[in-house]
Amino acid sequence: MNIDIAVPRYFPLDNGRYEVKPGMAPLSKCFGNGIVDNYVFQIDNTFVDYRLTKLASRQESLNKYFQTSNYSNVVDAAVIKFIIGRLTYEHPNYFHLESCTSGIALNCQLTQEKLYFDKDYHLQKVDIQKDAILPSYICSLDALAAQVQEDITVICRANNTNWIGAIHLCFPNHWSAEDKIGKDFATVHAPVAGIEKINQRAQAITNTMIMHQPMVRFAWGLSTDTRLNHHPQPPLHTPAEVWGGRKFDIENPQLYLRIERQVIWGLPECDAAIFTIRTYFRDVTEIKQDDSLRINLISAIESMSVDSLIYKGLVENRDDIIAWLEKP
């Protein structure tokens, strides 16, 4: 299906600083993209590329990209109900519900799939008009994650502790679902350079994610390709140096700003929150043509500590990237 919707444009470097902070804003905030800025799930004319990447990731190894831990039926039902509700509200042209004898059916026009759920939101069956999905969807969350351009994480809370209960992560940026599943906020974020002060407030931040109004935040990095899937472990028969996407060649410059739009929506009735991650790329060659954007990008890179440069995979390329950005 052709989708005539432009990709939203974001540039989370307006202050010219690289900062490690929660940086959460109300989901209602406008970033210049109209009503889609307020959506949890954004659909645009790149949908097919994202869909194909998700299917390829699942086919490579579903366990590599989808994990759950201590993920209760109560939380799962709330998550599935939420996702279905947002999809039918935000994109009624692409998703609509039908009642059926055992529960409900979600018609997914973009993929030409019909997903059947029972009254507890467990996936019962899938009608597919195109090629079969391999491997078959194993649960409701797996099936719904394959209908959207976001990765989906579920944060759970109980007895003053928190953990990642589910991760459907087909577009990882050098981290993996297998490594993070079941761990708490502080442990998950421990590798991030400069995270120490934030991790001291880990439980309070988790409580805010669950109890507060819906929020949005952004993260960014630089990549030398537009591959959505940068799992730390390359697929079989793929060389690591080809897979990495972090080797800048000043003689043949290819550089992209990789932006993550992260939406947090609390489900306090079941002590959980949904955390979605949508990945975008902006060609830095185009950014160079706008002096304001170019200067802010240079300033942000120059403000990064050595530890941050190492974490972002830029320590070897920093000087060449800045030299190229400064060159007319």
Could you give the topology of this structure?
Blueprint: E1 25-26, H1 47-60, H2 62-65, E2 66-68, H3 73-90, E3 95-100, E4 103-108, E5 113-118, E6 123-128, H4 140-145, E7 150-158, E8 161-168, H5 177-180, H6 185-189, H7 196-199, H8 202-211, E9 215-223, H9 240-243, E10 256-267, E11 272-283, H10 284-287, H11 291-302, H12 306-311, H13 318-326
Antiparallel strand pairs: 1-9, 2-8, 3-4, 4-5, 5-6, 7-8, 7-11, 9-10, 10-11
Helix pairs in contact: 11-13
Compact overview of the structure:
This protein has 13 helices and eleven strands.
Task: Walk me through this protein's architecture.
This protein has 328 residues and is of the alpha+beta class. It has helices spanning 47-60, 62-65, 73-90, 140-145, 177-180, 185-189, 196-199, 202-211, 240-243, 284-287, 291-302, 306-311, 318-326; strands at 25-26, 66-68, 95-100, 103-108, 113-118, 123-128, 150-158, 161-168, 215-223, 256-267, 272-283. A 7-stranded antiparallel beta sheet has the order 1-9-10-11-7-8-2. A 4-stranded antiparallel beta sheet has the order 3-4-5-6, covered by helices on one side. A hairpin with a 4-residue loop joins strand 10 and strand 11 (272-283). It is globular and about 65 Å long.
The count of strands amounts to 11
Instruction: Give the overall average pLDDT.
Output: 96
Q: In percent, how helical is the residue content?
A: 25-40%
Q: What's the SSE pattern?
A: EHHEHEEEEHEEHHHHEHEEHHHH
Q: What is the straight-line distance between the termini?
A: 41 Å
Question: What is the radius of gyration computed over CA atoms, rounded to a whole number of angstroms?
Answer: 20 Å
**What structural category do the secondary elements indicate?**
alpha+beta
Number of contiguous helices: 13
Low-confidence stretches: none
Largest sheet: 7 strands, antiparallel
**Beta-strand content:** 15-25%
Shape: globular
Task: Give the neighbour order of strands across the main sheet.
Answer: 1-9-10-11-7-8-2
